[in-house]
Fold these 4 entries.
Entry 1:
Amino acid sequence: MKFLAVTDLHCSDINQSGTDKDSTGSIVKLKRILSVNLSGCDFIMNLGDTADYNGGKPQSELLSDIFGVFKSSGKPFYSIIGNHDTSIDKNEYIRLLYCPGRYYSFDCCGFKCIVIDSSINDISKPFPETEIQWDNCNVDPCQLDWLKSELRGSKTPVLVFTHAPLMMKEWDVENPHLIKNRREIIEIIENSGKVKAVFSGHYHNGCMGVRYGIPHIVFGSAGKYGPDTFAVVEVSEDRLIIEGHGLNESAEFNI
């Protein structure tokens, strides 16, 4: 399996002063990235924070623009709901980016890919009324039950995708970017014996860590000023290869 990963585009038509976001340039970068780096890729994974609401062009229009770029690539593409994407109703995000749901799974090349919605502040309200706080990401109980079921029923190895990460370089650290109830999630993942790697965004500088043989890859933001940031990922039965660009490091793991 081979896929291109991009995250945290933070697309907008107004650049936000006092931040490192190149909001108006991110869609130009995305077009450039997809135009020359998709050879041999089975799909594109967009790990969330796709567009920002900041008083410029309506967020729904920005998401439609991004959808058009992904669709014109000619490759299958999948998206995750990021914390900034909750400025509009999650169902609207799902509709505009043609997601199967707020969380979902799909099969590709002998792997099951599981997409998790971590953009929740209050686990009793998975569909928030306003944009959530970026430093209080959680996964709701209904979704945890679904994750257990998906892993239990999978006949193939599994890759997990989520906007907010489960760990940074190390496990035992406190960082506001991490999912708050990550211990529950990682216990489910590790006990299954089926998950080969976990991929996330949210932390704009990117990082990598390994826990009990499972690589946790946090991709850097494509929406920051600077070089084009993305990764091309190859996964085989026993090997994970990250070809990093921009803020993303290249690396290889036995899995």
Entry 2:
Amino acid sequence: MTQSFGPTALITGVAGQDGIYLARHLVALGYRVVGTVRPETGPADRIVYLDGVELVELDQRDRDGFATVLEETRPDEIYNLAGFTSVGASWRNAELVTETNGLAVVRILEELVRYRERHGTAPKYFQPSSSEMFGVSDQQPQTEGTPHHPRSPYAATKSFAHHITVNYRESYGLFTCTGTLYNHESPIRGPQFVTRKISRSVAEIALGLRKSVTLGNLDVRRDWGFAGDYARAMHLMLQLDQPADFIIATGQSRQLSEVLTVAFGAIGIDDPANHVEQDPALMRPADVVDLYGDPTKAREQLGWKPTLGFEDVIEHMVRADVDRLRSGVEESMDYLFAR
């Protein structure tokens, strides 16, 4: 018996945090999901999260490769979630981040124009923008109309990709949406991100495997949400009759020190001070003090709102890392959603 599917979605970078949550959401909705992974790494241990997903190797910078995948897949929707994601590391990799986050987007959009010329229509396209684009903003919270003032190579490339996506919509009539995603976390966030560094370290402290965690600036404030909620917002955008741009955020600003308080509280330590060290070497050359977004448009036009609050997300991450350490199982479907 042949299995039947609904629409086809192409997710670049499907083995990343956002790709995994989006893939699980779309598979549950009956989509055929095709996901790209980097040729040199593949999905590795993350294959456990990608049941039901057709995997294709693709370097994000390979225009001809993308054109081939596009023609062979014939997707209804494209979610471009591949790219360079570390703000801090972008200072050491400015050329690479420009290629993967900036020029790669131009190449994708150019191929969508050509695809439409051949077939008369083009897939709907989602581009993830970043709150880091706003940088030093005198507007709190930020809205869809807040000017960009990026303060890192990563932020500058995301700003470029944002504007070029809007430009191709307005110039060529493509269905392209941008979602400006504020910090969104989960137990499958990469270990290089500060929230996961904290949750893993706190779990190790809980089990007596270490005594402290070393961090940089504890005064920065961000708008932290749950990655699964943000993946759901991406899908909602491409279900609209007309494309638009949205802020996806919780609307609340929290200090990094609050992440520590909640994380340590999850293991029964009320005061984390004795377990936290600061290292000036971990400070960024130009940091952004505070960012939080206004999700009003997403709430009113998409019907979207977060399902997990800040405390729930951080506690969930700590519990999952404790489970990892106790079981020795690094990747499991059990870690994706709070129980």
Entry 3:
Amino acid sequence: MNLFSKKLTYILLGAALAFAGCSKKPKRPSPNDTLLGQGGAGSGIGGLDPSASNIDTAGLTDPTAGGLSDRGMGTEIGDQLRDLFQPVYFDFDASAIKGSERSKLQEAQGYLNQHPEARILLEGHCDWKGTAEYNLGLGDRRANAAKQYLQSLGVAPTRIETLSKGDLDAVENASADQAAKDRRVDLVILKK
């Protein structure tokens, strides 16, 4: 290799390294840290004890309370029953199910016990912040966290489906209150 080829090689390698370092990507949490909490204490799936009552929820905001939706008996769209349950809300950039939100999933579990023919679709949503790719992954982690919690309550995995919508339904440049409502898992009953 002549001197010119060596210099050109070093210049190209240096440029490649310089450009590789320019792209700033957000620091993404490990899925193990956000699935159902950060390894928390207790038994059950992911270290989660569904009957635990000593959960510290101080300082957490809950956009709504309770499990059954205040919208009535739900909206029937084809083989889906929507709005029967209130969504499960999440903190910013998190997929851990807050103690204040678990009762909503317990209500869904009770409904599924009473309706053995029904299944549930867990739709994971995110606010408008972040890349589309990252938000799809976060929506997926949120839906799967809800799935694992339902499984820990005894719901068969064959009766649970998950879908990530990421930020597809999010309000862009939303206020803090609206963004909090966009960080959720919708509970949709499937009749077939």
Entry 4:
Amino acid sequence: MTAFVTVNGTRLEYQLIDSSQGRNDTLVFLHEGLGSVAGWRDYPAKIAAATGWRVLAYSRRGYGQSDPITGPRAVDFMHDEGRIVLPALLDQLGIDRPMLIGHSDGGSISLIHAGGTDRPIRGVVTLAAHVFVEDLTIAGIVDAKKAFETTDLRQRLGRIHKDVKSAFWGWNDIWLHPDFRAWNIEAFLPTIRCPVLAIQGVDDQYGTPAQVDAIVRGVGTKGRGLMIENCRHAPHREAEAATTRAIVDFVAGLG
């Protein structure tokens, strides 16, 4: 069951799964560019059960049952999410020193939050995150646009978003904007003070292994990469067992 909280004047959908062990340690799930609370399906609950940690998942503005966006996104929309919205949400819900698990755009936002604020973070796991824009990324997003216009993708996304047009075009339009080609968040990586695990599928249609290499190189000795064979852009769905094992081991290592 989801609930709602108003953050900086925006009504956001969230789900909070209590720890089976009564712990206050919290994992925060940040969804992909077309995701939402519902888009995670039962994966947050599975990770909560496997780790014993409490889990928070929320739908960003424009996604799921949260308020729609009212205009085009700016190039730095992920910067604002990581440095302004996420801190305010965590404060509103009384969550301190979380660990972040972010998929795609959510992974990028997690890195921005960890490196661009002075808030204490236990750790970060990224699933197919981007820290710069590649030709492959743009090609994949062009393909998604075609699929939205010509296949049942619109109907499938409509199952997890109140306003599917806002969700899709808010994401697609900004990623395909010419100004977005210069988007880069590598400058945030050296200031990340917590452990980072960067997971990516070898066959990711939106990014090459250069993304993981850049994250590990930027974070330094605190970073580790994991490339998963026979996996594309959604490791938690396409290689669930390997991804879950890596996350559980990472969480256990945090103490």
